[in-house]
Amino acid sequence: MTQAFNPNFSYPYHLSPNDFASTMTDVYDFLYDLNEKAVEKGWGRFEDILQLQALSNVLSNVLNTSLAKYSRELVVNTLPNGHPDLIRRGIYPGDKAVEAEDGVEVKATRHTTAQVDMHSAREHDLCTFVYSVDRTIGVPWCDLKPLTFTGIFLGHVTEEDYRKNERNERGTRTASLHKDGLAKYRMSWIYLTNEMRTSYWCKRQLGLPLINETGDR
Q: What is the pLDDT of residues 115-148, one digit of tens each?
């Protein structure tokens, strides 16, 4: 796992590679324990029970809580729908902030481009965990690959880095990073496995060497 980390990344908020490694391990352990009981009860894997969007939302919440546990400076923003997800420790009463000036917004996505949809375009520090989940139809659950994190990004983005996504009259308006904003954001990578390093955008934009498979999870 350690070989996939960016040795040149400058971590904000006194975060460290160990914080992110421990956070990923927490999620792996969480899913293992959850799936052990779920399969025993005949429900199947947790990853297969939820719709993919719901899975990303659950992972975002678990990642948010776990990263705060290991961080020296950040805590969970306890205000429902407060922004961002993680805020500086000891600044806001009750660790509640409607719109904190700094902190980290945490998202999980299956998109290997590291793209995520937001409710609105905001200036913030965005942390995206990219994950891979095997949902091959017709394969016994025991033969499916476990959910794996393939990339982590943490960078500062502004409102100008976003585009507004069109939705029909029944949909909810969202915003996501436009082409240039996304390219800028991906330069702030923390962790990339070989699965990500062989993706089209990564080979074209970063040109990173492959790592020894024993260093990949």
A: 998 888 889 999 999 999 998 888 887 788 999 9
In a domain, 111, yes or no: yes
Q: Is residue 5 part of a domain?
A: no
**pTM of the entire structure?**
0.92
* Nearest residue to 84 via CA among 51, 46, 128: 128
Of 94-103, 146-155, 171-180, the poorest mean pLDDT is in 171-180
Q: Are 45 and 133 in contact (CB under 8 A)?
A: no
Range of the domain at 52: 13-209
Q: 3-state SS of the chain?
A: CHHHECCCCCCCCCCCHHHHHHHHHHHHHHHHHHHHHHHHCCCCCHHHHCCHHHHHHHHHHHHHHHHHHHCCCEEECCCCCCECCEEECCCCHHHCCCECCCCEEEEEECCCCCCCCECCCCCEEEEEEEEECCCCCCCCHHHCCCCEEEEEEEEEECHHHEEEECCCCCCCCEEEECHHHHHHHHCCEEEECHHHHCCHHHHHHCCCCCCCHHHCC
Residue 215 vs residues 198, 210, 211: alpha-carbon distances, Å: 16, 10, 7
Q: Is beta strand 104-109 parallel, antiparallel or unpaired with respect to 189-192?
A: unpaired
Number of domains in the chain: 1
**184: closest CA among 161, 204, 207?**
161
